[in-house]
Design goal:
single chain; alpha/beta; Rossmann fold; 7-stranded mixed beta sheet; binds S-adenosylmethionine
């Protein structure tokens, strides 16, 4: 979505009249009310990160206007990219277009070789606890068929596989091929270690039969169009993926569609907190620890993407609203320690 000077284009609608200066603002979250033809847009100025909730009257655009607005969007995208800072920002966190999603796919392919190591160092190992909590909240249990969406190099997928055991079945889905390759290599290495017996000349790495973990199937696919039937999974997890998809409501409705009734979906991500201190601490860590450290590993541009992507991400209560709008029966957002830097949205189908 793009912000034009005095109007907002959202999907097939053109929303007119925004009564405050948007030139230095970013949109966090929009929700349409089809009945009243209005949209609630939560916007914050970048400088102060103060949020404003504004309601804009909607007029459905004609086909002509839509194509006009596409032209405007393209022009705006070109203009947006002229600033040096944004040019250097891989993954295009300021836009939610197909092109931005493609850039993100490339970004995640690029960082695959260093992603795990950086995660461990930058979170001081805490990401392991956050991921364990997410698996726990998904309520995955022995024998379940489960899915990890945006699985990346498979950290949460592996934990799910341990949880559901050899009678269960696990799918890990991601759109970045290099991440999936890394995930598979990691599991193969683990199996080698598990199956290796120095007294046995018959060591093998190609079976899960000896392991107490479930078999994992790696799937290259889009979170916005999950290649699974309705009502398939007993539990679903998603770690640090929702913030990166170009259409959060669509991703949520896909998660809901493929989960069985009464089951849980647990979504872990950075917390775009409503608490100013938390945001300042988080911003400080990202700018002064994460990005410089990423620079040492030659992936500075990729990690610069993080902060704006978090600032654009809906807050906990907004995520709950979006989940309920997507059709989940219940939704709760938990802030994770330390300092509520992370959040987990737990939804019941
Ligand atoms: C920050 S990584 C997280 C990986 C892993 N879940 C973890 O917690 O370590 C985000 C992952 O989401 C994937 N991703 C982003 N958008 C996606 C989409 N639309 N469909 C599938 N995967 C997507 C990226 O390729 C990337 O591997």
């Amino acid at each position: 979505m793009l912000i034009l000077n005095n109007s907002i284009n959202y999907r097939h609608h053109r929303f007119k009249k925004v009564s405050f200066n948007q030139s230095k603002s970013c949109v966090h979250h929009e929700r349409q009310n089809v009945n009243t033809k209005s949209v609630v847009v939560v916007v914050s100025t970048k400088a102060h990160r103060r949020r404003k909730k504004i309601i804009i009257e909607a007029t459905t655009a004609t086909n002509e206007e839509r194509s006009d607005s596409n032209v405007n969007n393209n022009q705006k995208a070109t203009t947006t990219k002229t600033t040096k800072e944004k040019q250097a920002m891989k993954g295009n966190p300021f836009e939610q277009t197909v092109k931005a999603a493609e850039e993100r796919q490339e970004l995640f392919n690029d960082i695959a070789p260093v992603y795990d190591q950086l995660n461990d160092i930058l979170s001081l190992g805490l990401h392991r606890a956050w991921k364990m909590a997410t698996v726990k909240w998904s309520r995955a249990k022995t024998g379940d068929v489960v899915l990890d969406v945006c699985c990346g190099s498979g950290d949460i997928t592996k934990r799910l596989s341990d949880k559901v055991g050899e009678t269960g079945m696990v799918y890990g889905l991601d759109f970045a091929e290099n991440q999936l390759r890394r995930a598979k290599e990691k599991m193969d290495d683990l199996l080698l270690m598990t199956n290796f017996n120095p007294n046995n000349t018959n060591n093998t790495n190609n079976t899960n039969n000896d392991s107490s973990a479930a078999k994992i199937t790696w799937v290259q696919g889009d979170a916005l169009e999950l290649p699974f039937e309705d009502d398939t999974f007993d539990a679903i997890t998603m770690g640090y993926g929702l913030r990166n998809v170009r259409d959060i409501p669509k991703a949520l409705s896909e998660l809901k569609r493929v989960a069985k009734s009464g089951k849980k979906v647990a979504i872990l991500d950075f917390n775009n907190s409503r608490d100013e201190t938390t945001n300042q601490v988080s911003g400080f860590i990202l700018d002064n620890v994460v990005v410089p450290f990423a620079k040492l590993n030659d992936v500075e541009a990729e990690y610069k993407y993080l902060r704006p992507s978090i600032e654009r991400f809906p807050t906990g209560p907004e995520l709950v609203d979006l989940a309920l709008t997507a059709g989940f029966k219940e939704a709760t957002h938990y802030e994770l320690q330390p300092g509520g830097l992370m959040g987990c949205l737990v939804c019941e189908v």
